[in-house]
Amino acid sequence: MRCASDGQIEKPQHSELLKMDIDQSAEILRLRATVRDLLALSIIPEAWVGREPPAIAADLADLLIGSLKLDFAFVRLCNPTGGQAVEVIRGDCWKGFREWLRQRSVRFGQVSRTEIVTNVGGAEKSCSGVVIPIGVNSERGLIAAACDRSDFPGQIDQQLLSVAANNAATAFQNARLINELRTAQKALRDQEQDLRKAHDELEIKVAERTSELHKSGSTLQKREHELLGIIDTIPSMLWSASPTGEVTHISQRVLDYSGLHFEDFLDLGWQRLMHPDDREDTATAFFQAIRTGESYNVVHRLRRADGEYRWHHTRGEPLRGPHDEIVQWYGLSIDIDERKRAEDHLRDTRIKLTRASQIATVAELSASIAHELNQPLMSVLANAQAGKRWLAANPPNLLETNASIERIIRDARAADQVIQHIRGLFRQESFEKKQVSIRDVFSEAVRFLHGDPRKHDVSIDWQLDEHLPTVSVDLTQIQQVFINLISNAMEALEGSQSSPHIIVRASATDQNQMLIQVIDNGPGVADQERIFDAFVTTKTNGMGIGLAVSRSIVEAHGGRLWAENNPTGGATFNVALPVSPVLQTFDVS
Fold first, then answer.
1. Which pLDDT band, with edges at 50, 70 and 90, does 55 fall under?
2. CA–CA separation, 259 and 252 (whole Å)
3. For residues 550 and 511, what is the distance between their CA atoms, to the nearest angstrom?
4. b/e code 284-301 from CB counts within 10 Å (16+ = b)
5. Taking CA 218 as the corner, what is the angle to CA 222 and CA 215, rounded to the nearest 5 degrees?
6. Which residues neighbour 51 within 8 Å (Cβ) at sequence distance 6 or greater?
7. Are 97 and 120 spatial neighbours (Cβ–Cβ below 8 Å)?
């Protein structure tokens, strides 16, 4: 699109419109790379299962230094229920970080949101740093990172650091739960070992007493009484059964726990003690052991006298005679309810974390798709309304109506192109960037904006250098960036006391880059960095996704996007894009 002598913008030629139909492989590759990074960070906590908290913090610090190519990393993980925090530091480019954090805490309290610190390396090395809290007011800890890259920390850097930090905090919490579980398991194992020892001692005493009873029938009742006393004093629930599985003895602890009598356990009456959902599996395992002579081992719920069901681990072993025949079954049941609750709590926590991550991903994707489709659909609506007015004229203006319909078809195809782009993303297709002139990008952006009647009359002053190199970009994506930046500038000027005015500048720099600036004379920007965070907006009906998506697109092209307030009022949004290796220039006269 060219500028006519009277300052009006001519409609783009057919050849220029064809340039919109470009392959989109590079953007897909970038998105796929970002997804791979996120998946890699999401899988990392699996390697931290069972690790001690200091090892988790050290692994995270090493990961930030090694994988994300940082020069400094600080990790603090806190236990929300109390206890000493774990801290690890790597790299020395931010030597004054601990003092900075102490002074910042004295002045402002806990870190409640992401903070970016410039020039953290001092005179020795130019580095930028970022501090990201974990949890509300950093109650679960925080991470700090620094790097000498000029574009650090970008939006993707912050997102990856946030994902890594939250995964580490989750692994830290899991490690605490696992440690508690292991402590409980160790106590249970010690108890089981004591019970086995008592069981073995009981078998020896039973054999000795049996031998004595054979020798002295007169003392049989006395010996039996002694044996029953030993069984009843063992700190667990014990039972015995005949080779056919009929109960022969129940310890007093079993009777006290269940509130039943010995007769209630006869003729398979012991199944009344089982939870209805566990009864069939318990019976199957028990009779399998009776039939095969193998050990009996099952975990099930047993009803207490007050009606509460508690988890138990029940084991049974056969006592064999001199000819390897089974003469008796002995078993014990150990209460593992606390351990089972801890395991269930840990599993529920992991499920909740996975569900929360899925909901956040769907929400962000939905907002991004809605934002991508908003501009072409608004243009379709404006042209449809215009066509309706032309048809309602007396006589109907068919020429203008046909022009409106053509614009509707054009904008509908643009919306379809966005949909195809999203479908290609889910099909993991690839595309290639092409050489385009920045003039073509601006022409298409202005065409979309002028389709909105609310923005039709805003003055735009174009200040393009005489000769500009081409850039290698995805035309659709970069157009979306400038549509968003110019539209934001127009909306910032609504209700302004001064005459609304926008300047768009483009010039080549000495660093093989092209600098494009969108300048307005509006109220300016309150927080020049936070406005690029997803879902942060100052608009009444805004979603807060436009600038976040725009920064991601620019960074995917190897560029930068940042905001500045003008000394005389208003704001400037800067886009720096790398120029093409082959410099193709065009005349802007």
1. confident
2. 10
3. 22
4. ebbeebbeeeeebebebb
5. 100
6. 59, 171, 175
7. yes
For the ranges 79-93, 139-153, 236-250, 392-406, which has the lowest average pLDDT? Answer: 79-93
d(CA 133, CA 116): 12
* Peptide bond connecting 376 to the previous residue in cis, omega within 30 degrees of 0: no
**Residue whose C-alpha is closest to residue 432's, from 16, 29, 36, 31:** 29
How many whole angstroms separate alpha carbon 94 and alpha carbon 116? Answer: 13
Lay out the sheet containing 128-134: strands in order across: 86-90, 72-77, 141-147, 128-134, 115-117
Residue 11 CA to residue 551 CA, distance in Å, equals: 29
Residue 222 neighbours by CB under 8 Å, 6+ apart:
none
379 vs 291, more confident: 291
* DSSP conformation letters of 219-280: GHHHHHHHHHHHHHHSSSEEEEE-TTS-EEEE-HHHHHHH---GGGGTTTGGGGGB-TTTHH
Q: What is the pLDDT of residues 65-96, one digit of tens each?
A: 887 788 899 999 887 666 678 899 998 888 88
Residue 19's nearest CA partner among 471, 581, 582 is: 471
Residue with tokens 């991470």: 143
For residue 537, the model assigns a pLDDT of 65
Q: Does 575 score more than 90 pLDDT? A: yes
- The confidence band for 358, taking pLDDT boundaries of 50, 70 and 90, is very low
Separation of CA 61 from chain center:
19
What pLDDT does residue 77 have?
87
